[in-house]
Amino acid sequence: GNSVTQMEGPVTLSEEAFLTINCTYTATGYPSLFWYVQYPGEGLQLLLKATKADDKGSNKGFEATYRKETTSFHLEKGSVQVSDSAVYFCASDRGSTLGRLYFGRGTQLTVWP
Amino acid sequence: DGGITQSPKYLFRKEGQNVTLSCEQNLNHDAMYWYRQDPGQGLRLIYYSQIVNDFQKGDIAEGYSVSREKKESFPLTVTSAQKNPTAFYLCASSIGQPSNQPQHFGDGTRLSIL
Fold first, then answer.
1. Which residue of A51, B1, B57, B92 has the fewest CB atoms within a 10 Å radius of its CB?
2. Are the CB atoms for A89 and A103 separated by under 8 Å?
3. What pLDDT band is residue B73 in, cutting at 50, 70 and 90?
């Protein structure tokens, strides 16, 4: 089964609105968790990561906190911009040492001016 | 600048034809990966390699083949056995160990059937 479940999109917001994209994971052990962003026609770029419980990853105004008690890693941003329009992917390494990642299905975000 | 280069950006395949997608990295990364992206399905792992001359099947390896003769290169061949090859293909690399290091992605190759 899928190790990472993220909120289905599309998500449409007005500029300066608050963003939450939910992500939950299943894993044995202590996985590392990641958020990637994909702009149209491009590959994925790492947005932020967290490697242990209660860690908060942050970058470009985005934040996500590793919550072991709820197995969640929700992405948040206080005030979105038009330039944040992209597809966002949550990913986990499942606590494996093999180096591979397991991705959620992606959430399309569109921000209108 | 270090990075991952995928070529070509667009590729067309005829029925019964094998095609090879190129992936080169100059990041000195040990591990490399190939993903297939279809609308609404996220990324699915095709093959990965943690070290030169070694690779493992991912979740959807049927109809694909790879080689890892050099650290910098991890080409993917889409064979005629892959009946639905139309997709966006992404190559990635990482340091490998420890596994909590992020993967770096190329800009992808879009493959279509003629």
1. B1
2. yes
3. very high
> Closest Cα partner for A100 from B106, B96, B13?
B96
- d(C-alpha A31, C-alpha A15), whole Å: 33
A interface test, pick of B37, B50, B99, B110 with most A CB neighbours within 10 Å: B99
DSSP-derived 3-state class of residue A84: helix
- C-beta atoms of B97 and A96 within 8 A: no
Q: Which tokens sit at B91?
A: 């190559």
> Quick one: CA dihedral B75, B79, B84, B86, positive or negative?
positive
CB contact under 8 A, A34 and B92: no
Which residues of chain A neighbour B108 with C-beta distances below 8 Å?
41-43
pLDDT given at position B24: 98
pLDDT tier, B55 (very low <50, low <70, confident <90, very high otherwise): very high
On chain B, the residues whose CB falls within 8 A of the CB of A32 are 99-100
Contacts of residue A103 in chain B, CB cutoff 8 Å?
35, 42-43
Cβ atoms of B101 and B49 closer than 8 Å: no
Task: Using a CB–CB cutoff of 8 Å, tell me whether A96 touches chain B.
Answer: yes
